[in-house]
């Protein structure tokens, strides 16, 4: 068995691990939606960054799920891309 396989086997039933994986999945879903919306509008990361008052590296980190960001920043991004944020709690 490979190292990674045994690692996941060890934690696959761990509740905290599952919770963290679910949170990461939700952040990545948002990141992908931001990237797709930006690409649909033919806006570069650099241009989007300028529109919301940040730099390109922050946009890159957001789109790859490496940056935690506030709701305020999410609303700025959405507005800059002509989108709106809809929040659904389930």
Main sheet record: none
With helices defined by DSSP (H or I, 4 residues minimum), what is the helix count?
5
CATH top level class name: Mainly Alpha
Helix content: 55-70%
Mean pLDDT: 89
Q: Within the CATH hierarchy, at the fold level, what is the topology? A: 434 Repressor (Amino-terminal Domain)
Q: Could you say how many structural domains there are in total?
A: 1
Order of SSEs: HHHHH
What is the strand tally? Answer: 0
Beta fraction: under 5%
CATH superfamily: lambda repressor-like DNA-binding domains
Gap from first CA to last CA? 37 Å
Shape: elongated
Structural class: mainly alpha
Describe what you observe in this structure.
The protein has 90 residues and is mainly alpha-helical. The chain has one domain: Orthogonal Bundle (434 Repressor (Amino-terminal Domain)). The chain contains 5 helices and no strands. Helix 3 crosses helix 4. The termini are far apart. The mean pLDDT is 89.
Briefly summarize what is shown.
The chain has helices at about 5-10, 15-40, 45-50, 55-65, 70-80.
Key traits:
434 Repressor (Amino-terminal Domain), 90 residues, mainly alpha, 5 helices
SSE map:
Blueprint: H1 3-11, H2 15-40, H3 45-52, H4 56-63, H5 71-80
């Amino acid at each position: 068995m490979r190292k990674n396989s045994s690692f996941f086997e060890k934690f696959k039933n761990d509740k905290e691990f599952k919770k963290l994986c679910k949170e990461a999945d939700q952040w990545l879903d948002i990141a992908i939606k931001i990237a797709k919306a930006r690409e649909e509008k033919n806006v570069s990361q650099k241009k989007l960054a300028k529109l919301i008052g940040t730099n390109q590296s922050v946009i890159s980190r957001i789109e790859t799920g490496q940056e935690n960001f506030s709701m305020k920043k999410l609303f700025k991004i959405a507005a800059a891309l002509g989108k709106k944020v809809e929040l659904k709690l389930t």
